[in-house]
Design brief:
alpha/beta, Rossmann fold, 2 domains, four-stranded parallel β-sheet, about 40% helix, about 15% strand, ABC_transptr_periplasmic_BD
Amino acid sequence: MKKAFFLLFAALALPAAAELRLTDDAGRTVVLAAPAQRIVSLAPHVTELLFAAGAGGKVVGATQYSDYPDAAKKIPRVGGYTSVDMEAVVALKPDLVIAWKSGNRNQQYDRLEKLGIPVFVNEPRSLDDVARALETFGRIAATPREADEAARAFRARRDALAKQYAARPPVAVFYQIWNKPLMTINGQHLISDVMTLCGGRNVFAGLPILAPTVTEEAVLAAAPEVIVASGMGESRPEWLDAWRRWAALPAVKGDNLYFIPPEILQRHTPRILDGAQKLCEQLEQARQKAGRK
């Protein structure tokens, strides 16, 4: 009788023990009855983070441009991150959808939750947030060993870059996302944290919007010593060199107009440290040109 009671008690306790209760980056509580086995990613960086956390095999759907690593290219598509195909998501029968706060529309994941599909919102705003996302995704998908190791490696590389560059003489930087409209980032953006890591100072850190539109006059008034552009692909955008018509601009005088491919600086993944390495080296070049050793 005692043995039967013990077995019954253990069986009842198992679901509670397996339950996951998490707080996402929107401050919402997300409860999963068990680690997720079928995950739909609504942003390319989320897909990449899941693979880095050892959970790539559990991703059953992803949005357009989820192209890293190569295995991600084979995952069924559910539209773009701004135009998610809800029917396609539901058809995949996910036990969790991971959304991007800045990229997906709130009504998209609100609708999914009304259909009984849990949604976890991801929004890294700092380099440490990337490491924490890896750890969290490892918990979500029951791959903690791979995820924790990836997070440790990420933090170690970040710390090495900080040790080498963070205390170097500050360099005023304008990061240009696009030219029409002319867009940049404020101090709450992850890329601004990368600038700080490299000893850079974001000239538009004080603006209230995460990715604000600015005027050409505002850039000239901010007098950046370095301009870094991203563009849309692996090629340097032609519009970066349009700044050369302003010969008195410090970034032009110093010939400090640089390009970093967006996939290694604008994605909130471990590869952002590849972009950080490039940015740190570019800022160091600017210091050397200016004789600031």
